[in-house]
Design goal:
41% of the residues lie in helices and 13% in strands. The protein is an alpha+beta fold and 468 residues long. It has three domains: 147 residues, no CATH class; 131 residues, no CATH class; 62 residues, no CATH class. The strands form four sheets. A five-stranded antiparallel sheet has the order 2-8-9-7-6. Strand 4 and strand 5 form a beta hairpin. The longest helix is centred in the middle third of the chain and has 26 residues. It is globular and about 65 Å long. 47% of the residues are buried. It binds adenosine monophosphate and magnesium ion. Adenosine monophosphate binds next to loops.
Amino acid sequence: MLTHSYTDLPERFYQRTNPERFPAPELVLFNADLAEELGLVFSNEAEIAQVLSGQTLLPGSEPIAQAYAGSQFGHFVPQLGDGRAHLLGEIKDLDLQLKGSGRTKFSRGGDGRSPIGPAIREFLVSEAMHALGIPTSRSLSVVATGEMVYRQDGPEPGAILTRLCESHLRVGTFQYFHHRDDLQALELLCDYTIKRHYPEIACSELPDRCLELLRAFAKRQGDLVAQWYGVGFIHGVMNTDNCSMAGITIDYGPCAFLDDFKFMKVFSSIDQQGRYAYGNQMAIAEWNIYCFADCLLPLIADDQKLSATKVKEALADISSSFASLIHQTFARKLGLAESDSSSETLITDFLRYLETHSLDFTLGFSNLRNLYEGDKGFYTENSDLESFLARWKDQAPDFSQMDQVNPKVIPRNHQIERVIDHANNGDCEPVAEMWEALKSPYTVSTNHQHFIDPPDLDEQVYQTFCGT
Ligand code: AMP
Ligand code: MG
């Protein structure tokens, strides 16, 4: 039985709308463990396909498309909203949402659909992030719709992804009402967000609640993005409409993981300026937080100058605290004491060494134990390596700490593309195998060893596409 809290908010927050009809839904991927955790019971695959494509509604479903705005590549767009997603309701306090389930009033020029490739991609990457211990939306299923969708490269099979989220509230949800000068809605949204995601905030005065929310939100964003750095994750479209108020990773589009280390690496075909490059992500998180702060200004004080001063105070140390979060991430990856700022040079030197020699980011860290024990096989031997090694050994690195944060298996771009190619040709066995390997990123079973390997030269992926 689904429950609802979002529909208690006024009707201008969403549109009530049902998923479209699809000719022949067929189950492609199903996360049975997650279904069990949620207490969802189905009698057979056909039923799963019907329900998780929105053809049969679960008891209590009240499908809606949510309204939101967003700053896309720095430019404000006043109306975005769920143009191809339907929120069916909540289960165990999580949003159950279909993506690719048809048009809504927010679809603008879009067809409301998703090709199977991006649906599989989001399924694999979000589940990999979860296994890596990084806050994220979860994926329950991919169901092929039985119809084709038309994109740049011609027709592709259509699919619907079902995902679960602490909520789908975004910075863009606040921007939507801020842009419309709808203070009543902003206040309701603030209280809804606090109740759902930040129950620890108990200030009775609205301005204090807002400032507390701003600080708590900023902390979650910083913690999240620092974790992205740690696994070499590049979100690819950190627009404010993809920035979750709950502080989790959402809206996987042209996201990618680093193979060889390059600090300003960009994969996304639409990110021409490198705005969302790997090494820019923390600065962008900060930019997004200021967009959120902007929306709170009218709630903090009538005098906008006073509001701005209070926001400034609340975020005074954001840049330095975010820089230290990144430092802590890499200190942990090298097994060093987090609080020791003397490790900074060691970290910078090691990253520069990886980048100079185009060494694989993931393997560069997961092979450190071998390096320590004298096996330099993976590394390019030179004086930089020797200098790093000597200084690093002096610090007596903590290997048990390193083993928890240096994964061996990540969803590598070339492997994702390979399994999607197979799926497009009707063979989902490789996707299932890759998903299995991604479930335990820190310990690899012998039959999954090949998922550790970086791409050969002819397998390298240079660009990723949002595929919408
Ligand atoms: P995304 O890049 O998936 O975060 O989407 C950005 C905005 O475009 C959101 O408002 C989506 O709902 C909308 N959108 C993306 N693809 C489609 C589509 N095929 N049909 C309708 N709306 C879409
Ligand atoms: Mg989005």
